[in-house]
Amino acid sequence: MGEKEQRRIIEHPILPELKDIKKVTIYYDDKPIEAMEGEAVASALMNAGIRSFRKTVKTHEPRGIFCAIGRCTDCMMIVDGKPNTRTCVTYVVDGMRVQNQNGFGIDSEVVK
Amino acid sequence: MKNFETEVAIIGAGSAGLCAGIQAANAGAKVMIFDENHLPGGQLFKQIHKFFGSREHRAGIRGYEIGKQLLDEVEKSGADVHLNSVVYGIFDGNTLGVVEGDNHYSVKAKKIIIASGGKENYLPFKGSTLPGVMGAGAAQTMVNVNRVLPGKEVIMVGSGNVGLIVSYQLMQAGANVKAIVEAAPSIGGYGVHASKICRAGVPIKVRHTVLEAYGENEVEGAVVAELDENWNVVPGSEQNIACDTICLAVGLNPMSELAYIAGCEMTYIPLLGGHVPMHDENLETTVPGIYVAGDVTGVEEASTAMEEGNLAGISVARALGLINDEEGKEIADNFRNRMLNLRSGAFGEGRRIAKATQVEAFNEFQAKEGAK
Amino acid sequence: MKKTGVVYDGYPSKEELEQSPGFPNTCSLSKGTKAVIECVQNIPCNPCEAACPYGAITIGDNITNLPILDVEKCIGCGNCVAPCPGLAIFTVNMNYSDTEAAIEFPFEYFPLPNKGDIVDAVNRAGEIMCKGTIIGIRSAKVFANTNVIKIAVPKEFADIVRSIKRLPRK
């Protein structure tokens, strides 16, 4: 699925239509991303087509969302400079900066 | 560090915790409910299907609407809900350690109800750590709460009710489900849920498993293969299915760590998801004053979690002497009956027996302790 | 031999349906529009019982009992279709016209078809069987976003068609 493709579910057969979404902007590796007020960082990234959030310590394998309830820590990223932030239970704030995390994310070793 | 006191402290503001809080507070108890999430309701708000059961179980009402009802009731009850509040331990059998944002405090309670829920199981296979492989519940949260499609072409692993329901809801959200694969020889969940999937033209492949997820940095496809009667891969049956998402619906396990830390005796019941605290028929554990309710004490569904919450709430109210014991027993019996109704029939009978085993384990443990 | 039935195929077999007390036989269906309850497992669920204004559906105190349809009392109003949480109730009118039967089924996808649309009608396995004409769409607040769609199909598909192929999103 391409990055530009819409992943946001506006109309839904059961849930009310998403109307008057309040938009905020977050920055993923300095690139602006439009997010919906109140949503989790992980969901804003997913809507932008970004699913690889970090690389593991030893083998540098990509990881993304797994549990979405803050348990598994697969979705950790560097958020506003703070490494190991669980993006599925961290909510977007206008101007927030999110970086892909390499390993433990210490010394701000950012994944290129 | 600040110290607070309350009559009833409840950990978890999901189906079980909210119902427990409503019952206890309506009986007149001072109730504090703690939840680590920023919103209450647990997993109810991602459940957009109509619940089963009967009227008293709120049957026919969609999960998220039930969530709204419970929030309304909890507000009226006067129970105090603390969000963004992580309970990291239970000390001396009566004191919670809580981190709420940047604040750290303790709460001493006369009665504690642990309703911390469950979490999804993982299934290891080649490539199973690739982004795009996720829990079915995670995908459900994405589409129904965050309103974002986690992918457009999905393979679901597991045909229990979670796998079937989430497949359906992914389609309602606009995704395509390419197949549901089930390693067992038959479909695990309700036939009516499976029938909805079939009518949508999605194949449910029993005796099939996913061998591999492949892709550069994300899932681009899966290798699915047939299993023989001994659960071995049938040679030559491997097939590639292009997909961008693989959801794992392979069961849940109780998040019983807090109960364990608190010293509650545990028993291992695979059908209920693994290690669960022993408890009596009022849901009180082997640590006096600590109760359990919901998935933490055995993975079932939200309807039973609500009934367990009701029972735990009324049990603590009785133990605190807030309601007439005779009347309290009658109410508790009613909740127990409602649970039995849910734990019956082709799908519920096994859970009824498993839950009885859990109470038996409690009785045996107490008898042994008494003999010492 | 390949085993059939709801736990293997995902949808009930002909035998399972015929043995089910909510499934009217051909004779009953010839008498007028009837509910067709395709609920063949003992699951704890009973909203259909209360949904019927004519008392034609019985489950009883044990909520895992299968629903029993009293075909004499059932007038085919279809009020039970949307309340079934399992989306397992349909209505069938064998005599919608000389050549067509009308089938009502629950539908919870977006977008909805429009009245008069000619669409692909599918069987229990989701296979396209024939074309059908949408002749009615019922939505009500009490249906809680489950729409009840009525489709006319050639008579020979009355016992076969149970839904329509999902329509593409814009």
The CATH homologous superfamily of chain A: 2Fe-2S iron-sulphur cluster binding domain, sarcosine oxidase, alpha subunit, N-terminal domain
The largest chain-to-chain contact, stated as pair and per-chain residue counts, equals: B-C, 41 and 43 residues
How many separate domains make up the residues of chain A? 1
What's the total helix number of chain A? 1
Largest sheet of chain A: 5 strands, mixed
Q: Please state roughly what percent of the residues of chain A sit in beta strands, choosing from under 5%, 5-15%, 15-25%, 25-35%, 35-45% or over 45%.
A: 25-35%
What Rg of chain A, in angstroms, do the CA atoms define?
Answer: 14 Å
Q: Could you tell me the radius of gyration of chain C in angstroms?
A: 15 Å
Shape of chain C: globular
- Biggest β-sheet: strands ordered side by side in the sheet of chain C: 1-4-5-8-7-6-9
CATH class of chain A: Alpha Beta
What does this entry look like structurally?
The complex is a heterotrimer of chains A (112), B (372) and C (170). Chain A has 112 residues and is mainly beta. Chain A has a single domain (23-106), classed as Ubiquitin-like (UB roll). Helices cover 6% and strands 27% of the residues of chain A. Chain A is built from 1 helix and 8 strands. Chain A has one helix at residues 41-47, and strands at residues 23-28, 31-36, 54-55, 62-63, 76-79, 82-86, 97-99, 101-102. In chain A, the strands form 2 sheets. In chain A, strands 2-1-7-5-6 form a 5-stranded mixed β-sheet, with helices on one face. Chain A has a 3-stranded mixed β-sheet with strand order 4-3-8, with no helix packed on it. In chain A, β1 and β2 (31-36) form a beta hairpin. By secondary structure, chain B is an alpha/beta fold. Chain B has 2 domains: 2-119 and 252-371, FAD/NAD(P)-binding domain, CATH 3.50.50.60; 122-248, FAD/NAD(P)-binding domain, CATH 3.50.50.60. In chain B, strands 1, 2, 3, 4, 5, 6 and 19 form a 7-stranded mixed β-sheet that branches. In chain B, strands 8-15-9-10-11 form a 5-stranded parallel β-sheet. Chain B has a 3-stranded antiparallel β-sheet with strand order 12-13-14, with no helix packed on it. Chain B is globular. The two termini of chain B are 39 Å apart. Chain C is globular. Chain C contains 4 helices and 9 strands; from the N terminus they run αααβαββββββββ. Chain C has one domain (6-164). Chains in contact: A-B, A-C, B-C. Chains A and B meet through α1 and β4 of A and β8 and α3 of B.
